[in-house]
Amino acid sequence: MPIIKILPHAEYCPQGAEIKAPTGTSICEALLDNGINIEHACDMSRACTTCHVIVRQGFDSMDPSEEEEDDLLDRAWGLEPQSRLSCQAILAREDVTVEIPKYSINHAKENH
């Protein structure tokens, strides 16, 4: 079972965290299942960028992003070459390290 290391984020995970999640799980699902309430305004339907993360390690272990995800990511705050929508980034067998960007383009927080 892969480990996701989450780098510290002032709002969602101030101390950082390490969680385990089954292969085939999205990073977003794994975070939410472990009490890290990352934004996901579109309920993980690949229609927004609020669940944007930067995969600092293990990026190449996941399937590549599809064109629709790439188009959405073009609108994400703090876009980097290792950026993914966490709802579309599916864990493989390798551990990953993710950073949740400081900001999102969401103007109103969702309470999921």
TrEMBL record:
Q: Which CDD domains match?
A: fer2
Alphabetical GO CC annotations of the entry are: cytosol
Q: Where is the signal peptide?
A: none
Keyword field: 2Fe-2S, Electron transport, Iron, Iron-sulfur, Metal-binding, Transport
Gene3D superfamilies found in the cross-reference section? 3.10.20.30
In its UniProt record, which GO terms are filed under biological process? P450-containing electron transport chain
- Is the keyword Metal-binding assigned to this protein? yes
Domain 2Fe-2S ferredoxin-type, by residue range, is 2-104
Q: GO molecular function terms here?
A: 2 iron, 2 sulfur cluster binding; electron transfer activity; metal ion binding
Its cofactor is: [2Fe-2S] cluster
Provide the family line: Belongs to the adrenodoxin/putidaredoxin family.
- Which PANTHER family does the entry link to? FERREDOXIN-2, MITOCHONDRIAL, FERREDOXIN/ADRENODOXIN
Q: Which NCBIfam families match?
A: fdx_isc
- Full protein name: 2Fe-2S ferredoxin
Organism encoding this protein: Comamonas koreensis
